[in-house]
Amino acid sequence: GAVVSQHPSRVICKSGTSVKIECRSLDFQATTMFWYRQFPKKSLMLMATSNEGSKATYEQGVEKDKFLINHASLTLSTLTVTSAHPEDSSFYICSAIKGRAREQFFGPGTRLTVL
Amino acid sequence: AQSVTQLGSHVSVSEGALVLLRCNYSSSVPPYLFWYVQYPNQGLQLLLKYTTGATLVKGINGFEAEFKKSETSFHLTKPSAHMSDAAEYFCAVSWPENYGGSQGNLIFGKGTKLSVKP
After folding, report:
1. Residues B13-44 pLDDT 10s
2. Hey, is the C-beta of B44 within 8 angstroms of any chain A C-beta?
3. Which site from A46, A68, B30, B99 is most exposed, i.e. has the minimal number of CB atoms within 10 Å?
4. Long-range contacts for B12-15 (Cβ within 8 Å, ≥24 apart)?
């Protein structure tokens, strides 16, 4: 199998602070990871593609200066929500691509609440 | 533009009844097709997928789906619903990387919440 973890699973922060979310592939290496955002009772929307050793590719409408992505190793990508505001409250889910088959495995998600 | 449509945001069935969740895609080229299940406050679990080969795909938990190119559909079925099947189900598509600018990411439908009545 393939396991992807996210940390923290749940975070509550004050408006204006920054929050870092980690996505780790535990038993495989992933050159590509994706970050998705899920609003309540809504589908998942791709935010950005994280590539190890290079800059992330952001989807249209996603502010790269607000959602900082770092993919420093083959097993770790981080998403930092800078100067968070209540509208950033959401469920953030990462996924990692494994192997030649390019199968995508999802993390359990991080619930961010900005007060 | 490519898109995924799931008919019915909420489907309710009785325990033991047939489950049918509908998914249609819009694309000039047949994509890879996926069904995921999501339990509250959890990530996504892959139920099944179609990439090539046999168009009837069997997945976990007794679910199956059939790719019908002529109908651009990939409906999910299960002969007999269990209470534990109550969850949110997402249909998703992707294309090979570098095809039409694809990065290999998934495009999701809006989801269908399945309720199972005792």
Report:
1. 999 999 999 999 998 777 899 999 998 878 88
2. yes
3. B99
4. B12/B114, B12/B115, B12/B116, B12/B117, B13/B81, B13/B114, B13/B115, B13/B116, B13/B117, B14/B81, B14/B116, B14/B117, B14/B118, B15/B81, B15/B82, B15/B83, B15/B116, B15/B117, B15/B118
